Each structure stands twice: as structure tokens, then as C-alpha cells.
Amino acid sequence: MPHLTSTEIAGRIEDLYGAPLADLEAHAKDQPPGMLSALLGMHNDLALAERSIDLHRDHLARLLNPERQLGSHEVSHLLDGSRRLAEAVAVRDVQTKSATAVLQSLARVPAPTPPPPALSPPPAPPLSARNTAPSR
């Protein structure tokens, strides 16, 4: 399963709710907790995990610089950074899977269409066209 990024998840949320993410976040603050706030929370957690992955990957790359010597002190940092990177990847994977599953289960409800105009009864014929012959 390909990993969706927080940007792709944000786009799907915007498509579902028909508004920009910033507007949805402002709207959700004034509402009781619901599906929108849950999706926004998953998106925020996913974005945080992605930033954490980038941070820990860059930190590990600096530690593993070929021009740098690894001593016992650096090895402990290397192990800690690897653990933190693995945790961030796990969080990203879980958030992506959850958000994708929820978004796939939801569909945008089309805007209600106005009811068709009621058929009016045919107009009565003019008085002059009515039969004026006396009835028996």
C-alpha cells in the first residue's frame, strides 16, 4: 500500500468537506467533537510524524557522516536516533492507514436539490366558453 502524505490526506479532507483545511480547522473549533475533528486530528498527527521522520533522518545522516568518527558516545546517539526514527515511521504508518480507511468509507453528500415545482391544476376555461344552455 503506498503511503499517502499529510498533504494528500489534507486534499482528500478538503474534497470531502468542500472547503480549505484552514477553514475546516476554524469551523471544527466551534463544533462538538465529530468526524471532522477526528480527521483533522489524524492529519495533524500524520504531519507531525512526517516532520519527526525528517528530523531524525537528518540527525542520523549527520551522525553517519563519513568524515566523522564514531565513538561510544556517538553510538548511543545513533541507537537513540534510530529508535526514534522507527517510532516516527510507525506512527506515520498507523495514522496514514487510519485516515485513509476513514476517508474511503466517507463520501461527500451532494447539495440538496430544490424540489420540482408542483404541477398546478389546468386553468378553468373562461366563463364565456362554458355551456350557457339551460339544463333540464
Short description:
The protein is mainly alpha-helical and 136 residues long.
List the topology elements.
Blueprint: H1 6-17, H2 21-29, H3 35-63, H4 72-105
Helix pairs in contact: 1-3, 1-4, 3-4
Write up what this structure looks like.
This protein is mostly helical and 136 residues long. 62% of the residues lie in helices and 0% in strands. The model has no long low-confidence stretch (mean pLDDT 84).
Following the backbone from N to C, one meets helices and strands in this order, namely HHHH
pLDDT below 50 for ≥5 consecutive residues: which ranges? Answer: none
Counting H and I runs of at least 4 residues, what is the number of helices? 4
Structural class: mainly alpha
Q: Tell me, what's the shape?
A: rod-shaped
- Bin the strand percentage: under 5%
Average pLDDT: 84
Tally of DSSP β-strands: 0
> What is the oligomer described by this structure?
single chain
- Write down the Rg: 31 Å
The percent range for helix content is: 55-70%
* Alpha-carbon distance between the two ends: 87 Å
Largest sheet entry: none
Defining traits:
136 residues; 4 helices; 0% strand; mainly alpha
